[in-house]
Design goal:
Elements (H helix, E strand, L loop, with lengths): L2 H5 L4 H24 L4 H14 L1 H10 L5 H15 L6 H19 L5 H12 L8 H4 L1 H10 L4 H10 L2 H25 L1 H7 L3
Organism: Flavonifractor plautii (Fusobacterium plautii)
InterPro entries: CHP02185_IM
Protein name: MptD family putative ECF transporter S component
Length: 201
């Protein structure tokens, strides 16, 4: 696909394609979000697990839609679904906008046809999910009170409070980076022929 096609922006078919892969991404995402309810540590590590298992749908979307806005749209669909259903605070929208914006920038700088560029873009995109647990650190007391009022068991809340240390904040950001790198290389290995056919080299 030529660079001019990339700059032309997405058409209706492109939006549908992004929507399909966004639905797959969200399904995987939601499954791990539910697992995060079992233990606070699983919730903090959730962005990493999601990144590990979503490399395939994300990079397939990148291969099929080599146009500006596709990564941002995918992230906003996920963030908006969570926000409008009351699952998360507005922090997740902000984190997705920043992460996807950086991902779009990398794709644009690498002309949408670099597998390395798309892998870096996926790593940045995956950081968007840190907006789910991040309020524990940004608005600790209010957030813990909120989930308590929503019926979260006291043991879960107390464990979460104990885990929300500075070192665990570093883990929160490192987990999706490591997960995305591994997940991205798995996707690349599985779909190498498809990526080559699409011009992602």
């Amino acid at each position: 696909m030529s660079g001019s096609n990339s700059r032309r922006g997405m058409g209706g078919r492109d939006v549908i394609t992004v929507g399909i892969f966004s639905a797959i991404y969200f399904a995987i995402n939601f499954a791990f979000m539910l697992l995060g309810g079992l233990h606070p540590l699983l919730w903090i590590l959730m962005p990493g697990f999601i990144a590990l298992f979503t490399g395939i749908p994300h990079l397939m979307m990148c291969a099929k839609v080599q146009k500006v806005g596709s990564v941002l749209l995918m992230g906003l669909i996920t963030g908006l679904i969570y926000f409008v259903t009351g699952q998360f605070t507005p922090v997740i929208l902000v984190s997705f906008v920043i992460a996807c914006g950086l991902g779009e920038l990398v794709r644009g700088c690498t002309h949408y046809t670099s597998i390395r560029g798309n892998l870096v873009s996926f790593v940045l995109f995956s950081l968007g999910m840190v907006g789910s647990p991040l309020p524990i650190w940004l608005m600790r007391e209010d957030f813990l009170r909120q989930i308590t009022e929503q019926g979260m068991p006291a043991d879960y809340v107390n464990t979460l409070a104990a885990l929300s240390s500075s070192s665990m904040l570093v883990v929160l950001f490192l987990a999706p980076v490591v997960g995305a790198i591994i997940g991205g290389f798995i996707a690349r290995a599985m779909f190498r022929k498809h990526f080559e056919k699409a011009g992602l080299v």
